[in-house]
Every structure is written in C-alpha cells, then in structure tokens.
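Pinned message: reference record for Phosphatidylinositol-glycan biosynthesis class F protein
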Amino acid sequence: MTADKTPHSARKVLKRTLTWSLFCSLASLILLLIPFNSGTILDLVSNCLVATKMWISVILIQIFFICKSVTHSMPGKQQSKVGCLLKYVAVFLAIVTFFCVITILFGAPLTESRAETFHFAVLLSVAGTFPGLMTCGVNLDEWSRLYVLSSPEYGVEVVAYWTSLCSIFGAWLGAFPIPLDWDRPWQVWPISCVLGTLGGYIIGLILSSVHLFIKYYKMARQKHL
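Predicted structure (tokens):
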C-alpha cells in the first residue's frame, strides 16, 4: 500500500494539472478570439493598455488556480507562506524591471510609449516567469533544474516550463514585423509583441497539456501491467 501511494499521488497531480491546463487553454483561445467591439482580432489589442491589463489578470487567475489545485498533492512541495510575500514581490518587480530594460535595449521607444513598454514588460513577466515563481519560489537551484536542465518533475512544473519558454519565444517572434516597412496598424509597438506573448502562452498551455496527457497515459498503462 505504501509503495502505491507515491504513484497514486503522482497520477492525481497529473490528472488535476491536465484538467486545469486544458480548461485554461480553451478559455484563453475563446478570450483571444472574442474582440471587444466588432469582428477582428485586432480590436482586442487596438488599445494595448486595456488588452495587457485584461490578459495579465486572466493569466494570474489561471496560474493561481492551476498551482492551488495541485500544490497540496505534490510531495516535498510546500505552499508559500505569507512571510515570503515581500520576497516574491521584490523578485517579481526585479523581473519586470529587467524585461523593461531588455525591451528598450532591443529597440523599444525610450521616451515614447513608456506606459505600453511597462505594461508589456508586466505581461511578459506574468506569462514568462510568474509560473516559475509560483512553482520554484526564489530557490535558484529549483530554477536551474527547471529551466537550465529542462527537467520539470511534477504536473504544475510542466505547465510552468512550457508556458514560460513559449511566452518569451512568442514575444521575441512578435518583434520581427515591427521594423518592416508594411505600414500595418498592428505593427505599432507593442501590439505584435503582445499577440506573440499571448499566442506563445496559449501554445505553451497546449503543449503542456499534450505532455501531461502522454505522461498520464504512460502511468495509467503501467498501473494495469
């Protein structure tokens, strides 16, 4: 009975995380495809500040519920204490500042569109690093294991790994059309980067769902062997 306890707990974590990851994937796709006013997806990001604020809230809620639903079932993982809140906030603000500097170094306007640059940095921080902050805390060894060694252990870490990488990669890809001489309305900074970040985040959720499904299927097969 003791020997089966750990596999059972692992299957429970995988199942819960897979369920939430699939739900968040569908919810994100639906929200992304429903414009505020009329019939095009550009309406959703025509006001970049409104779009980023909305999506920051959506992603924070999704990450909170994914982590909250599985953290108590994960062996060796302790939930965050209230005393660590200031440390988490300080780290997150440092990450936002880092992304602000990086985006400016990569060509974002230094004096113009400062609010857009800041909100994009917050969006990228929430989508790209907040999942890791929720799962690994401020432990550098855990961050190194998850992102440098690419070895997520539990279900929620798989979600953090894929959403972080895909969000950052999507933001990077979204910057390519901006300097091109196409004279399109969606080339205004940082609309394409916001779309790239959101698209990357959704793709990360889908990839993590596939990863979790394969892992859960393998564990289910081993159980019946």
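Pinned by admin. Summary line: Residues 7-224 form one domain.
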